[in-house]
């Protein structure tokens, strides 16, 4: 018999905190890895395995222990802001304007991030976002969202399935880009050998 899914408010299952203020002006070529809230818009991943932005640490910085779920605290639209990522590694600084969720032992981080980004909690959270030109989500809003969950083993299986799916999508995207680059290279060689006609016109455009 398959165990029933249980519905609880996230505030009953997780603890919450906030990142500490950093901005793009603090970024350095090397130093301690940091995640700024903008990454969730420009380079969204369900699971963040590596970070390529760095800072010189400030006092009172907030560091990950691994497995935290982060949600932007502000953004342009309610739909865009209602997304979540898991930070897999410890020792990464979390910048300001990030809501930090630390799940209890009965909640899988990846499953929670998927639900907040794509499931019913996503739409419930979007309704709670406040503001017009800039919308905001607070930890209190996240804590009051209802969350349906199966047993922890099933959550892990679902999370692992989507992780594999993300990896396959990324792999095929790379293959597509490789084939496209090869085709463009062949086209450029062909164009380079032509001096007149349509190929000649296209060569000047591509340059």
Keywords summarizing the entry:
globular; five-stranded mixed beta sheet; alpha+beta; disordered C terminus; 13 strands; about 210 residues; 7 helices; single chain
Explain this structure to me?
This protein has helices at residues 39-42, 78-81, 109-118, 120-128, 139-143, 152-192, 197-206; strands at 6-9, 14-18, 27-28, 32-35, 47-48, 54-55, 68-72, 74-75, 85-87, 93-94, 98-103, 135-136, 146-149. With 207 residues, it is of the alpha+beta class. The chain contains seven helices and 13 strands. Residues 186-192 and 194-207 have low confidence and may be disordered. A five-stranded mixed sheet has the order 2-11-7-9-5, with helices on one face. A four-stranded mixed sheet has the order 3-6-4-10, with no helix packed on it. Helices cover 40% and strands 21% of the residues. The termini are far apart.
Q: Which range best describes the helical content: under 10%, 10-25%, 25-40%, 40-55%, 55-70% or over 70%? A: 40-55%
Provide a count of the helices.
Answer: 7
What fraction of the residues are assigned to beta strands by DSSP?
Answer: 15-25%
Q: Number of DSSP strands? A: 13
| C-alpha termini separation | 65 Å
Strand order, largest beta sheet: 2-11-7-9-5
Helix-and-strand structural type: alpha+beta
Overall average pLDDT: 83
Task: Summarize the entry for a quick read.
This protein has 207 residues and is α+β, with helices and mostly antiparallel strands.
List the helices and strands and how they pair.
Elements: E1 6-9, E2 14-18, E3 27-28, E4 32-35, H1 39-42, E5 47-48, E6 54-55, E7 68-72, E8 74-75, H2 78-81, E9 85-87, E10 93-94, E11 98-103, H3 109-118, H4 120-128, E12 135-136, H5 139-143, E13 146-149, H6 152-192, H7 197-206
Parallel strand pairs: 4-10, 5-9
Antiparallel strand pairs: 1-13, 2-11, 3-6, 4-6, 7-9, 7-11, 8-12
Helix pairs in contact: 3-4, 3-6, 6-7
